[in-house]
């Protein structure tokens, strides 16, 4: 079986269009002119899509219907888990800002996870611990719905931030 038959069989198997592959040069590599042509054809994805809109709207609706901020205000002083969770969240955000603002923008270290490999696991662990603390602090209010409500709020914030940049 020669190369053209193999390509044709692969196109039929995966239903690829004939113009979907880049022409190869004599060495079997795609040239730089073909990669730029392919990049020009690709359109950037829209920032606001159905998935993003769903999480933002769900977070807004949840905030309104369960009086999220009112409950946080009323229960803030009743539990020390809020303070501990807030401190852990602050630590994880400070590490994230250190990585993004100082290391990447100011110092120009693009791959800070290679140079400082423990920053990402520490940030992740402190953020997860903060989430657990917030779940414990609000458990008496919403019971089994607490993780679902906090996750919906988290996803709404993440999707809103993705719209910004």
Strand content: under 5%
List segments where confidence is low: pLDDT < 50 over at least 5 consecutive residues.
none
What oligomeric assembly is this protein in? single chain
Helix content: over 70%
Mean pLDDT equals 84
Main pleated-sheet profile: none
From the alpha-carbon coordinates, what is the Rg to the nearest angstrom? 24 Å
Q: What is the string of helix and strand elements? A: HHHHHHHH
SSE order and pairing:
Elements: H1 3-14, H2 32-41, H3 50-65, H4 68-75, H5 80-106, H6 112-115, H7 119-142, H8 146-164
What does this structure look like?
This protein has helices at about 5-15, 30-40, 50-65, 70-75, 80-105, 110-115, 120-140, 145-165. It has about 160 residues and is mainly alpha-helical. The chain folds into 2 domains: about 5-40, no CATH class; about 50-165, no CATH class. Helix 3 (about 50-65) packs across helix 8 and helix 5 (about 80-105) runs antiparallel to helix 7. The longest helix has 27 residues, at about 80-105. It is extended. The chain starts with a helix and ends with a helix. This is Transmembrane protein 128.
